[in-house]
Amino acid sequence: MEYQMQDFDVDQETDLLLSTGSVNYHGDMDDEYVVRRNRRRNFTSAMCSCWCMFWRRCCGPRELTSRTIHLGKPSPGQFPANAIRNQKYNIFTFLPLVLYQQFKFFLNLYFLIMATSQFVPDIRIGYLYTYWGPLCFVLTVTICREAVDDLRRHKRDQEVNSQKCKRLIDSLEKPYEMVAASKLKVGDLIIVDKDERVPADLVLLRTSEKSGSVFIRTDQLDGETDWKLRLAIPATQKLLADHQLFNTNASIFVEKPQKDIHSFIGTFTRHDSTGGNESLDLENTLWTNCVIASGQALGVVIYTGPETRSVMNNSAPRSKVGLLDMELNTLTKLLFAAVVGLALLMMALKGFSGPWYRYLFRFILLFSYIIPISLRVNLDMGKSFYSWSIGRDPAMKGTAVRCTTIPEELGRISYLLTDKTGTLTQNSMVLKRLHLGTVSYTPESFVDVTNVLTNAYSNPETSSLSNGKFRRSENTRIKDAVVALALCHNVTPVYENTEGSDDGSVTSDAEADQHVANQSVNYQASSPDEVALVQWTQDVGLALNLRDLSSMQLRGPSGRLLNYSILQVFPFTSETKRMGIIVKDLQTGEICFYLKGADVVMSAIVQYTDWLDEEVGNMAREGLRTLVVARKILTEDQYLDFETRYNAARMAVTDRVSRVTQVIESLEREMELLCVTGVEDKLQENVRPTLELLRNAGIKIWMLTGDKLETACCIAKSSRLVSRNQGLYVLKKVVTRTDAHLELNSFRRRGDSALVISGDSLEVCLQYYQPEFMELACAAPAVVCCRCSPTQKAQVVQLIQKHTNKRTAAIGDGGNDVSMIQQADAGIGIEGREGKQASLAGDFSIPQFSHLARLLLVHGRRSYKRSASLSQFVVHRGLIISTMQAVFSSVFYLSSVALYQGLLMVGYATVYTMFPVFSLVLDQDVSAEIALTYPELYKELAKGRSLSYKTFFMWVLISIYQGGVIMYGALLLFEDEFIHIVAISFSSLILTELIMVALNIRTWHVLMILAELFSLAVYGISLILFHEYFDSEFIKTTDFFWKVLVITLISCLPLYILKILRKKFSPPSYSKLS
């Protein structure tokens, strides 16, 4: 058979090849059908494409791209707004997400189904408001609470986003304009002054230093306390004025945004007659949340908002659900199984005949009060009260609760992860000890050092340095040590006008003129330790006056200027652990080589002494950061010989680094030990007692910091994070799987030692031995992770949660702690000096670390204990009435009729019992003083015994007993009318509930008494007013009163006796302390 050739698309081809019928060769109708089908397909595909494009544009992840920025011109392309956003919702997602968060809990979903079923007439058993009223109330409370929380986050974000910045404009009359940080765009030129936060990621163009350098603080970004040096692009630094940037034909190419805060690739290109390219790296950048340490900086914005390094290292905020809520969700499922089981039992007794499914559903509805919807209402209102109490605590002024859904989590914490800089420490270095071998100086005796220097420099003939051939006097040794500290460093003094000018231009003010009275000196360096030492020499009378690349000038106690020429500088590195400098005294012509560094390397360099190791150990035990200072006096010939060899090594083509190291080490032999210094990084107020309290409370503390290993170890000791009788095991740098295996085995054999590990080694251990490492780390008394990136901090929190299933808390004060805080079950932010990022992102915000003990041990305990008691009592309230309903139905021919109708059912869970039951949020088992004096009480909370299967089933048995007693008692004692059963049983039920609340209260509050009396009064009024439910004549008789009292007594008295016996023979631990 021959087929006609035709053009068709793939779909048509498939249809043709798969067709089994005959083929129509006439073609007219088929062609018309194909055209219509193609039109439909084209329209459908076009709509799908549009919808996909809209979804990717609005909701999909933003594509990150590299960009070219032309100086002084608007940048083409769509870039995100420069705004910080910690909100969970927006105007479109708020209602759907809040409803989803509520109905993903079985409790709320169950009641939604129950309430919806009441629209079906055949299975309706009561008024609609008895189901929809409580459900709508719960949802309204939740929606309002979430809205208030998110509006507060929005308000806090607005405060940060509305901070004013100086944006350079192309105008000579007005060189800059003030704009909000959120209005900055890619390509804007902005000026950042000293101590100001960098509002967006910048490439540095100009600084107030002629050299184009500026120091920044990055502790809010990476946790490192060292100041970092940043350099402006040389071509733009050389311009005479800022406004010339608008006339410069140049562009900057920058890589696409990425997380790595330690790398950057870019290119600066001139398009004018000058031409040429300059490569850009990390030294030319200023990342968001860095702080300018001195002077001014002018940069061009390259990344904004979510594309900045700071935000990309933060995780998105998540909705946190407390462990108590999850436990109650599980118990709710058990109760639902009980409801279905009870309904099936009733149907089995009744018989599965007729429309049995209708009766089954009616029974399920009748017993639905076993799962009380008021549980959510009471818990949510309780959470709000706990949050309010925390904020109003006079002992914790300044504390704020950002997330009101998880206050109970504070009572279940097993692991606390803390930042170091700004959280445990103030990042303020102070020299605390100067040891010369025979004598040690402390802050109390530093005045003696000042007197020695004053005497030494008042006589010019005694001011020359000793040649070291004879035994020097103590005064000479003091002077030599102070001179060494004043010369051996990389510190630069920066002078700034105290009055200041506000013209917006970046001007040079680094040239110091000590005669200008309105100038104040500020020291800047890459290490705060060096600044502390130089600041101390100034305090005792020998001040650093001037410093440039080739010279240094000191000012003595009498104002005499001492000039030195800098011949060589050997900077500090993590490998050498020391820094050195060779200087020439221009007064005497003497050449000195000064060296300072860690004791582990310096002990082999200096001449042998019997006191060095002992004194260094003593200082380290006090938590001081030690430096050993030494010197060597060189002759002119010795220095020239060294210089020749040093320059030759630096010019070597092969093995340059090792050759240079060998030449320097040839000088580092038999050096004269001058002194040992001990610098203290000031701890936050009451850090030591707070950490001790938390450790005694059974909380394991991990310190996660971006700072150096040595610094982290010092703070771990000085803060008592590691107790005196515990050792520190520093995990060596591991690169391979074998290294990790050997180190982990070595740590396993160490026993009771705290673990210290770097971020790089942590990555390797987690890659190959994650379960083994986490088992060892979680068993250690404390863990210190140094050189941690913000992402690693969050990863550590996640691993602890995964491997231990315990609750974690994270506390920090910087932008680099936000990811960790958001990942933890309870995130706590401290409002630090450098910013509010951690405070804004945290679930709780405290002004200082010492408040953490009270937050956890007092408020955490109260919140958890109260919520556990409240939730079980609310379940008891539902179980007891469901038991009575089951007894009633079984006695009255298994009828699916409600025992109590309409207002009685609504009033039972609201006005009659709500206030006394809710007053349990005022109860407390121990006072705040006892909770803080005996932190060991907190250990019991982590075990979750206040709300467990054991306590839950105890309450189930109590409910069944009391419900059975009340219902059978009413049936036995009533005489003629059914309405009398309702009056007797309901009155006994209300009295039983009020008495049970009183039996469970441990510390009475005046509001509890008022709540009991108010509920009793309201019910008494109801007895008089509700004639349709109660026989007004019967309730006036003595029969009514004695029957109600007898039933109530039988239901409550045995429980009271059991409580007394238990208190006598098995009292709880806290009762022994009260």
Measure the end-to-end span.
103 Å
The major pleated sheet works out as: 9 strands, mixed
Give the % helix: 40-55%
Rg calculated over all Cα atoms: 38 Å
Strand order of the largest sheet: 14-33-32-31-15-27-30-29-28
From the helix content, strand content and strand pairing, which structural class follows?
Answer: alpha+beta
Number of strands: 33
Looking at the structure, what is the overall shape?
A: elongated
Low-confidence region ranges: 1-27, 462-471, 499-518
Averaging pLDDT over every residue, what do you get?
Answer: 84
Strand content: 15-25%
In DSSP terms (H or I, runs of 4 or more residues), the helix count works out at 33
How would you describe this protein?
It catalyses: ATP + H2O + phospholipidSide 1 = ADP + phosphate + phospholipidSide 2. The chain is elongated and about 125 Å long. The longest helix has 41 residues. A nine-stranded mixed sheet has the order 14-33-32-31-15-27-30-29-28, with helices on both faces. It has a nine-stranded antiparallel sheet with strand order 17-16-26-25-24-23-22-21-20, sandwiched between helices. The protein has 1074 residues and is of the alpha+beta class. The N terminus is likely disordered. It has 33 helices and 33 strands. Strand 9 and strand 10 form a beta hairpin.
